Amino acid sequence: MNHRSLLRNALATAALAGAAAAAQAQVQNGDFTQGLAFWNPQGDVAVQGGVLKLSTANFSFETGSLTGNVAPLGIEALEAAAGVPAYALDVGWEAAVEGSLAKQSFAVQAGSTLSFSWSFSTTEAGPLAALDHAFAVINGQVITLATAGANQQATAAPSAQSTISVFEHTFGQAGMATLVFGVADTLDDLAPSTLSIHGVTLAAPVPEPQTWALMLGGLALLSRRLRRR
Question: In the chain, what are the domains?
Fold first, then answer.
């Protein structure tokens, strides 16, 4: 094999290694074009128009149910499915009583950035509104996205979307990650709330300039050594 062939092979190997690393870190069906494929839904969960929707509506006595035949989980089942300890989904002194979630596990690299767009809507209204809330759980850490009550404008129906926001999270180390989206009722099982999710992506880390410099320096050294042979 001549010098040029060896150098070409080295460059190709480096490129393939980078592509393979990027391919390993991805969320399956993050655009929800395949419905709920690759996601584990629990409770009242459905995909509508490429948007994942999770509701606390109980089809047996409330309007706004997404499935029409699946009720939200009780709080103990919801906590277990989310992988969080008891009371982790409470809001202050208000105890969570039920909710729905969807989750997925996937491989990440250190520096990979998870992002998604979300909106929250609720029929909770007035000064005595319960603190229903939307949340995400990343590797067991509960992140509150929105809360009803004083900080949330009630909408006419739980399917109506509020302002769309974007969430981002960068992973500090490589490994398997579990992502959970959820919505919960607090105090009572009345006045349904809905969380909408779309555009879930996982971006591979961009190599630091020092990393590229080291890689190019190594290839340059290899090239010089091959030319001397």
Answer: 1-25+207-229 (no CATH), 26-203 (2.60.120)
